[in-house]
Design brief:
The chain has 352 residues and is mostly beta strands. It contains 1 helix and 18 strands.
């Protein structure tokens, strides 16, 4: 009987490992979560999107780390752009702190309502999407499809003389299909996954406003071909792997994958140099800069709620009174006097 039970148990493990999964909102992270995404600039030759279909195996276990991007999940009200995208309940900060995505996550969908991103020569610009960019209709299953389009329309004052305003309009036509499921092997472990094959055609145009009239300047059409792997594993509240391939080929332009945070590769994603100490923290957190700065900082708890919010002026050191918050894990963000995120980190508050 014991032998039979062991055989049945092993069969159950195999079936559980390779069974098709379903994604729901429960598989997407919450405010306070942090994910490390690694980039391999020269992946091994055998790494490719592979075939579509059921019960696939992707062996990406030999991917290496060239650099790390930290992805922060925050509540929109705790960001410098609170109120810009009403109705959103999850803000995602990445790309060295320069890119913000503002999303809606509920029982029915995960969608992007807008973003804040740097535009050359214009600075940090909020961009609203009309309608929203639907990333997933929950629940997500194998062979699900999604087709829709959305528009980003940005109008800013022109830095050029004789031109009143500049308009950037981007229309995206997106098609996605959950075309495969199976098992993903990464350096951090083995995961059941669904794969989404997503193609995007983007029509970008530039307009100038001269004496009250919009004048068409130029138009460019570009394409994206993406393969994205998602898992229902509790550690994966973000995508596991994202491969950008040259449209119409299998040539990889870029590949990012979730990295094990316990490995402890140091980050260099902050715009400024600073040291935050001690850690764990007792009643005071010190943040030392390499020069005098002005701006503000926020301390957030693990749920993404702001617990401390204060400004500073011409200082090389911030001294934060942490005695007012209970023990736990906290996150901080530092914004300069222009409203740009210049640094962030986390610390453990403990009654010492």
């Amino acid at each position: 009987m014991k032998k039979i039970l062991l055989i049945l148990f092993n069969i159950f493990i195999v079936l559980s490992t390779y069974a098709q999964i379903t994604l729901t909102q429960e598989n997407i992270g919450d405010p306070g979560d942090i994910y490390l995404m690694a980039y391999d600039e020269e992946p091994p030759d055998h790494v490719s999107p592979g075939s579509a279909g059921p019960d696939q195996i992707w062996d990406f276990s030999e991917l290496s780390v060239d650099y790390i991007d930290t992805v922060y999940y925050l509540h929109p009200d705790s960001t410098p752009y609170a109120g810009v995208f009403p109705g959103t309940n999850l803000a995602i900060n990445q790309e060295n702190g320069t890119l913000w995505g503002f999303t809606i996550k509920n029982l029915l969908e995960l969608s992007i309502k807008g973003a804040v991103l740097p535009i050359p020569e214009l600075g940090i610009i909020p961009v609203k999407l009309e309608p929203k960019d639907i990333m997933a209709d929950f629940p997500v299953n194998y062979e699900d499809t999604l087709d829709h389009s959305f528009i980003a329309d940005v109008r800013v004052e022109s830095p050029e003389p004789f031109v009143d305003s500049i308009r950037y309009k981007s229309t995206t036509f997106k098609t996605s299909i959950v075309d495969a499921w199976g098992t993903m092997d990464l350096p951090m472990g083995n995961f059941p996954v669904l794969r989404v094959h997503e193609t995007r055609t983007m029509v970008d145009s530039i307009w100038t406003k001269f004496i009250g009239t919009w004048i068409f300047v130029a138009e460019e059409i570009s394409e994206l071909d993406l393969y994205i792997w998602w898992s229902d594993d509790p550690v994966a509240g973000y995508y596991l792997v994202n491969i950008d391939v040259e449209p119409g080929t299998s040539n990889i332009n870029s590949i990012s994958f979730m990295h094990d945070p316990s490995v402890g590769i140091p980050e260099s994603n902050n715009i400024i140099d600073f040291v935050a100490y001690p850690n764990p923290v007792g009643d005071q957190l010190n943040i030392d800069f390499d020069k005098q700065l002005s701006g503000s900082y926020k301390i957030l708890d693990a749920s993404g709620r702001i617990v401390i919010n204060d400004a500073f002026s011409n200082q090389e050191r911030i001294q934060v009174n942490t005695s007012v918050v209970p023990s736990g894990i906290y996150f901080f963000s530092i914004v300069d006097d222009q409203g740009s995120l210049i640094g962030s980190g986390k610390f453990l508050r403990r009654n010492l």
